[in-house]
What we know:
alpha/beta
Amino acid sequence: MSTLVGCQTAPRNAAEGKRPPASELVDLEDRITEYAGRAKDREPYTPLDGDRREHLAHGVGALLGGDLEGAGKHFSGIGFRVTTLTDAVSGRRYHEVAARGSGVESRWGRLYVSADAAVRWSVQVPHPVSDRGTETLGARLLESAPGGALVVAGAHRTSGEEGAADVAHRTDSAFHVVITELQKRGVPGVQIHGFAKDSDRPYDAIVSTGAARTAPADAGRLAALMEDRRFRVCEGWSDRCPLEGTTNVQGRTAKHLDATFLHVELAPALRGDDAKGVRAREALAELLRGWAGTDR
């Protein structure tokens, strides 16, 4: 399985020697977790129709290619906009793709991509609130290495009728459209889930490659990073694990596109703020730094 990274060109304004777009100064973690936390309200959810999915795909493609103006035109057709943010903690800039208003489109999710470097990796949070703490973990991982993208769902997985909001198992979601565009450009991704430990699931983490049954070096490396930090890891390519993500649609698309996709299930303590949570985040961050091509 090959991984092609660095497919985002320099932002158009920078390439043309113009001033970069003005940035809004924010606490990025607070902004992301506040949005993701709205999922607890279980507001009505309706997925995008085909025309809106196409607009979204073209908009994401333009954004990843550095064409902010073109991206904005496509996003405006579905009630979205691009805002450039500067994180008050790290000083890094990000482009936020989010709904303009509070209608149904506000539950389609958000995308955050590096505005300062080519996108080299992604973190994906399909079940905010439902998989408690994954939204906070995703926000913190976005800041852990340069060149990142964060895709976060905007609805509780039980919000839609007949599983419509369970974006890890639906191809008609904005979440899936965005990740597919990243995968088409060879951007590796790790998707974060949560599970409750019991006698049938005695592990701290379950690492797999979704629909793919191979064991790419990235998956083995993450498992080793977890095990080095004294976690018990079930490895989906060599063990018989629960929750391997074999029906995950982003994993299936990654297999079709030959893109790197890691499906990671974490026990509650590994999604929290105590010592185990810190160690788990360090392991994931080290993986992302490797994808980014930097040790720090």
